[in-house]
Specification:
Elements (H helix, E strand, L loop, with lengths): L8 E5 L4 H12 L3 E6 L2 H13 L4 E5 L5 H13 L9 E4 L17 H26 L2 E6 L12 H21 L4 E8 L6 H5 L3 H8 L8 H12 L9 E4 L8
Parallel strand pairs: 1-2, 1-4, 2-3, 4-5, 5-6, 6-7
């Protein structure tokens, strides 16, 4: 892979697995110094070691993306990291969780936790990163949403509402900051196979059996490749939204 992101520092949340991990690896391979964030320190440390073997620069910052003080600490650590140039140029807002079921049958005791990480925590990161990048008059913010935020599914209706909300917040931010040279992009993946489904409570009965006829599902690398493509566009080109789905997949 060509080093099109050399000299840039990227923050990736939810980097211990799935889309976040694949994105951190891909951006590092493209030359970026990466600040990786997730709750599982051991997973982050292992990823730093993997990147170092290939000459990549990475800083692991453990924390909870639903807690404002943890988000603030992440950004402060990124700015104090010498190998990252005491700055950041890219923020990938990826951390989040799912929840099986619609409005009638999802676990209501998990609703607030879902919104704390998918909406409120993500919005705080967007606010802080947006303020910083506006001051620099450059930079990229990439928000990982979901196609079910645009076409809400009965398999995950409440989760879909959280992705609808963060997509709207991302668009609002884009309109605030675009005149300052800051790009905000929303990536809406189709169904991506990762640890996400197990944490969300999806199984053959309430999810996989119902989507089997939709065809091939995505791997995390497909989303990482899409994010890499966005970040390597010329600075004056802004692609606001992209949906990433396998060829032939009709869902949603």
């Amino acid at each position: 892979m060509s080093k099109l992101l050399s000299g840039k520092t990227a923050i990736v949340t939810g980097a211990s697995s799935g889309i976040g991990r694949a994105t951190a690896l891909t951006l590092a391979q493209a030359g970026a110094a990466v600040v990786i964030h997730a709750r599982r320190q051991d997973r982050l440390d292992a990823l730093v070691g993997e990147l170092a073997v290939h000459g990549g620069k990475a800083l692991a910052v453990a924390g909870d993306a639903s807690i404002q003080t943890d988000i603030d600490a992440l950004l402060d650590r990124a700015l104090s990291w010498g190998e990252g140039g005491h700055r950041y140029d890219v923020v990938v807002v990826n951390a989040g969780r799912g929840l099986a079921g619609g409005i009638l049958d999802s676990d209501e005791s998990q609703w607030q936790e879902l919104y704390r990480i998918n909406v409120l925590g993500a919005a705080h990161l967007l606010r802080r990163a947006g303020q910083y990048l506006v001051g620099r008059k450059s930079g990229d913010i990439v928000v990982v949403g979901s196609v079910v935020g645009r076409n809400v599914s009965p398999f995950s209706g409440f989760y879909g509402s959280s992705k609808f909300a963060i997509g709207a917040i991302a668009e609002g931010l884009r309109r605030e900051v675009c005149s300052y040279g800051v790009r905000v992009s929303l990536v809406m993946p189709g169904i991506v196979i990762s640890e996400f489904q197990g944490v969300a409570g999806y199984d053959e009965e309430n999810f996989f059996g119902g989507i089997a006829h939709f065809g091939k599902l995505l791997e995390p690398q497909a989303i990482a490749d899409g994010i890499h493509w966005l970040l390597t566009l010329p600075p004056h080109v802004n692609v606001n939204e992209i949906m990433i789905r396998p060829t032939g997949q009709s869902y949603p």
